[in-house]
Write a structure and sequence with these properties.
By secondary structure, the chain is α/β, with parallel strands linked by helices. It folds into 2 domains: about 210 residues, 3-Layer(aba) Sandwich (Rossmann fold), CATH 3.40.50.10260; about 280 residues, 3-Layer(aba) Sandwich (UDP-N-acetylmuramoyl-L-alanine:D-glutamate ligase). It is about 40% helix and about 15% strand. The protein is built from 19 helices and 19 strands. Strand 12, helix 9 and strand 13 form a beta-alpha-beta unit. Helix 12 runs parallel beside helix 14, helix 14 crosses helix 16 and helix 17 crosses helix 18.
Length: about 500
């Protein structure tokens, strides 16, 4: 599994490696410097014409930088080290690397000597920074950002939070980040990811077994389209591949139903039925003739027929939509799960707004998410819907949007525990939250997907996976990844500016 760790977790794994396994910290430091040197060599030919500026702090990240300085010097480069901070705070390992470096022709300076270098390396803080750089650190980072050269961050660009990618002030703008042991969250979460450049994970001797000291809370969702789509039996029929019920659309919003249903079919669902107001009949029959069609009057019979349900895309928040949501939750909460299997449910878009604005519906959803039905529903809020759901349960205690956007998985897990559902918080990075489980984060996709209807497509993809009897949590994880991969295919073909939601469905 591809873990994304925070600073505390990484320090725990470092300590376990050193104290429990017995690999000395100086060995880890040597490996970090060596792997960084090797990776730089892939981008730049290092010889006597190479100039390098290494910005170092007095912690062990700075010690990694001293090892890099020595290796660059041995390769023939003209190397300058710029230390910042107090020598009295130098770690034992840093002092040892400084002692070794005294035998090499590496200069220590109080500020850069040139306006450009072949290589500029940042070894100031690593994951150790807990606040914004100030004073001499802020000035130094601003200065090196202005210098010309190939910029490399050791482990993490200084100024970026390892925990959440937060950048409270200035940050080192890297072309390449060489990170050690495990990938850090801050390298992939915004805005920190904008400072990381190309990211390369290097093995410096911290083994996978170190996670036994405490499992990471977050992982990166991976897989190709072929790996993520459900397997199909050669002798299967439409009934074997899932029957999905899509409750979507309202007057002037038929497109939401069409996009959701098409995505459901394209993901492999055998049969799709759309429940929508009568005014949408002609549009939907012409747009997606493969789908069965009904109205809200057919709700209870349609529930008995399907393997998974999606409600919300384009249904509005009027009385009719509220009543169908109420009927759905009442029916699902009322039948005997020992006789009929629990039907997985996805609530999206207007369905979420209906829930957030009605305490009765919140109570019904909470009841549905209890006992054997727990975690059989996935809710897919974007950040605005996420805030509204949080307000519905936290009232005046709800944080501001900036706080929620900084750590959406924390609040997603809060909603997951409250409602007994899987929460998929959608944004440039989407988080799949299930209380008590690791949070999955999707780092694929692109800005072209920020377009009307994209969420309807995602809802259809996840619903199809649930109809194919994929676990609800796994369906959400797979769904966001599939959705993002489709977006990246579209971007490669037509560009981010031209991308429309319908394109996502057409590239399957």
């Amino acid at each position: 599994m591809r873990y994304l760790v925070n600073a505390s977790e990484m320090k725990t794994y470092d300590r376990y490696t050193i104290e429990k396994i017995g690999i000395p910290s100086l060995v880890l430091m040597e490996r970090a410097g060596l792997e960084t040197f090797r990776r730089i060599q892939k981008s730049i030919a290092i010889d006597h014409k190479t100039t390098a500026l290494i910005l170092v702090g007095y912690g062990n990240n700075g010690g990694d930088g001293l090892v890099l300085a020595r290796l660059l010097c041995e390769a023939g480069a003209d190397v300058t080290v710029w230390p910042l901070g107090s020598l009295q705070k130098a770690t034992r390992e840093w002092l040892e690397q400084k002692r070794i470096l005294e035998s090499f022709s590496v200069r220590f300076v109080a500020e850069p000597e040139h306006k450009s270098y072949s290589i500029i390396a940042d070894a100031l803080f690593g994951v150790g920074l807990t606040r914004k750089p100030e004073g001499i650190y802020e000035s130094a980072i601003k200065m090196v950002n202005e210098l010309e050269g190939f910029k490399v961050a050791l482990d993490l660009p200084s100024g970026v939070s390892a925990d959440d990618g937060f950048v409270p002030g200035v940050a080192f703008q890297a072309d390449l980040t060489v990170t050690y042991g495990f990938e850090k969250r801050g390298l992939y979460l915004f805005p920190g990811s904008r400072f990381a450049g190309e990211i390369e994970l290097c093995d410096v001797g911290i083994p996978q077994i170190s996670v036994s000291a405490g499992m990471p809370e977050m992982f990166c969702i991976e897989g190709t389209l072929q790996e993520l789509l459900p397997a199909r039996k050669a002798d299967g029929n439409k009934g074997n591949f899932g029957k999905a019920l899509i409750i979507a659309g309202s007057k002037n919003m038929a497109g939401a139903a069409v996009l959701c249903a098409r995505a459901c079919y394209r993901t492999g669902c055998g049969m799709v039925k759309i429940l929508t107001p009568e005014c949408n009949r002609e549009i939907i029959q012409k747009s997606i003739p493969e789908a069965l069609l009904g109205t809200y009057d057919d709700l209870e019979e349609s529930i008995k027929w399907c393997n998974a349900i999606c409600i919300g895309p384009g249904i509005g928040t009027g009385n009719d939509a509220e009543q169908v949501m109420r009927r759905l939750l009442l029916y699902l909460s009322g039948y005997d799960c020992t006789i009929l299997p629990t039907i997985p449910l996805l609530i999206d878009a207007d369905g979420l707004n209906l829930i957030a604005g009605n305490q009765d519906l919140i109570a019904m959803l909470t009841k549905w998410g209890s006992n054997e039905r727990r975690m059989k529903t996935v809710m897919t809020p974007h950040q605005g819907e996420h805030l509204r759901l949080l307000r519905s349960i936290m009232g005046e205690a709800v944080p501001d949007m900036d706080t929620i956007k900084r750590t959406p998985w924390i609040f997603g897990n809060l909603l997951s525990e409250k409602f007994g559902t899987v929460i998929c918080v959608k944004d440039a990075r989407s988080f799949i939250c299930k209380c008590g489980e690791m949070t999955g984060v999707n780092i694929a996709g692109n800005s072209g997907m920020a377009t009307a209807g994209s969420g309807d497509v995602l809802a259809g993809i996840i619903t199809a996976l649930m109809a194919a009897k994929v676990n609800v949590y796994e369906s959400a994880c797979r769904g966001v990844r599939i959705h993002a991969l489709l977006g990246d295919i579209c971007m490669a073909e037509i560009g981010e500016h031209a991308l429309m939601a319908g394109d996502l469905v057409n590239v399957f």
